[in-house]
């Protein structure tokens, strides 16, 4: 059995070929094709998405890959229950298993899909089928799917959206649905909100669908307007390191909900529909101190995103370092979503020569990113390992990511 599709940076074509072979072992015939969808890193713009604000993520060179084959016995009549038995069965398998070795497999009938019916990771592909095949949706036949991903799970790089996006681009092609990328972003958001039950925004899917090599995606979460911004990291002698702390603090969910509530409360108190409508220099003294800090983060973070876009367009990559650092300070002090491990990662990376660093993702654990002169990569890596060891903390995973291509067909 091939476990070959694990190494990041491995040529996509070779990886797809290995996945096809594995598919044939698992299901007894070849897939119809292979598709990939990358994870993402959010360069800057944290906790702004649900405030109708700005974000600047980029797709990374790590991706979920799916081999898919539609059921040949699938015929008309699914909706009436008159079709052949088994034709609307979806079989899923992943090379990733929550605890350890072997394939994790799942199976469901499309006719039986309803929110809450799919457990574990199968909820992500099932959610995509659910929104496509909904009441006014299209006729989705059963299919077989084999998934292999190089996006680390739970590191804040959106491994879950990579699974959803890989599934939707595959079905869009195979069923000739003609969906454009913004439409697929909205559908996967609905899959996540309505089926998986996570109140997430549009950023992660958009980055995975619309990212391009050497670019970041400047996204206005209010209008969904997306623009590519140059991010030629290597050409500037720089590298982006992800420092995955491996910690997930238990108050993450409650903390996220509480921050959203604070923002809504702040907007209402300021007479605005959302914090996007509050001017940057607004007087926050009428708010209670905690709400004022939350609001101040969102307003200042939106400005930092705009500043970052401006510098990148001017070709001043190193110039964004100070904005990354300011973003982290704001998330730590005003928004209070950092944690000791993220602060240690950021402080250590900066001390070891990073030009900028910040926590990325929702916070309370997960990953930090550091923008590092390429020649200093090893120095930063070693310093982080040493700092965590000195505090008796588990060694973080440190790896470089490159702004990569968005989702598409590989084979
Ligand atoms: P992340 O920040 O990585 O998106 P989440 O908790 O949102 O973290 O999503 C992780 C979940 O996504 C996993 O628990 C699993 O259900 C699903 N997932 C991600 N990658 C895979 C994979 N390769 N195979 C199966 N499920 C996966
Ligand atoms: Mg996720």
Automatic annotation (TrEMBL):
NCBIfam families reported for this sequence: gal_kin (TIGR00131)
Name this polypeptide is given: Galactokinase
Family to which this protein belongs: Belongs to the GHMP kinase family. GalK subfamily.
Keyword hit for Transferase: yes
Ranges where the GHMP kinase N-terminal domain occurs: 137-212
Keywords, alphabetical: ATP-binding, Carbohydrate metabolism, Galactose metabolism, Kinase, Nucleotide-binding, Transferase
The keyword Lipoprotein belongs to this UniProt entry's keyword annotation: no
Domain GHMP kinase C-terminal: 310-389
InterPro entries: Galactokinase, Galactokinase_CS, GalKase_N, GHMP_kinase_C_dom, GHMP_kinase_C_sf, GHMP_kinase_N_dom, Mevalonate/galactokinase, Ribosomal_Su5_D2-typ_SF
Region (Disordered): 1-15
Domain of life: Bacteria
Organism field: Kocuria aegyptia
Coiled-coil positions: none
Domain Galactokinase N-terminal positions: 22-69
EC assignment: 2.7.1.6
């Amino acid at each position: 059995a091939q476990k070959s599709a694990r190494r990041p940076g491995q040529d996509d074509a070779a990886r797809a070929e290995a996945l096809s072979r594995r598919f044939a072992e698992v299901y007894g015939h070849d897939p119809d094709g292979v598709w990939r969808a990358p994870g993402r890193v959010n360069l800057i713009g944290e906790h702004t998405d649900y405030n109708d604000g700005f974000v600047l993520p980029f797709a990374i060179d790590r991706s979920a890959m799916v081999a898919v084959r539609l059921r040949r016995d699938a015929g008309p009549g699914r909706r009436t229950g008159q079709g052949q038995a088994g034709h609307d069965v979806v079989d899923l398998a992943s090379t990733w298993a929550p605890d350890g070795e072997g394939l994790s497999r799942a199976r469901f009938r499309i006719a039986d899909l309803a929110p809450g019916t799919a457990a574990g990771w199968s909820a992500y592909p099932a959610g995509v089928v659910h929104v496509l095949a909904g009441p006014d949706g299209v006729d989705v036949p059963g299919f077989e799917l084999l998934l292999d991903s190089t996006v680390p799970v739970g590191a804040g790089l959106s491994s879950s959206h990579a699974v959803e996006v890989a599934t939707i681009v595959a079905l869009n092609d195979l069923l000739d649905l003609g969906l454009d990328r913004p439409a697929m972003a909205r559908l996967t958001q609905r899959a996540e909100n309505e089926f998986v039950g996570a109140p997430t925004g549009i950023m992660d899917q958009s980055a995975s669908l619309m990212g391009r090599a050497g670019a970041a995606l400047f996204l206005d979460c209010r209008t969904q307007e997306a623009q590519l911004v140059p991010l030629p990291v290597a050409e500037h002698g720089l590298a982006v390191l992800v420092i995955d702390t491996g910690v997930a603090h238990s108050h993450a969910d409650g903390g996220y909900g509480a921050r959203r509530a604070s923002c809504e409360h702040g907007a209402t108190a300021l007479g605005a529909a959302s914090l996007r409508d509050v001017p940057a220099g607004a007087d926050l003294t009428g708010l209670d101190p905690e709400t004022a800090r939350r609001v101040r983060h969102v307003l200042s973070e939106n400005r930092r995103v705009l500043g970052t876009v401006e510098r990148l367009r001017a070709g001043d990559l190193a110039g964004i370092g100070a904005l990354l650092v300011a973003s982290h300070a704001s998330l730590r002090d005003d928004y209070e979503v950092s944690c000791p491990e993220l602060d240690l990662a950021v402080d250590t990376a900066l001390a070891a020569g990073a030009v900028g660093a910040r926590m990325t993702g929702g916070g309370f654990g997960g990953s930090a990113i550091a923008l590092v002169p390429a020649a200093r990569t090893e120095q930063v890596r070693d310093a982080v390992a040493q700092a965590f060891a000195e505090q008796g903390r588990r060694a973080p995973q440190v790896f470089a990511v490159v702004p990569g291509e968005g989702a598409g067909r590989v084979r």
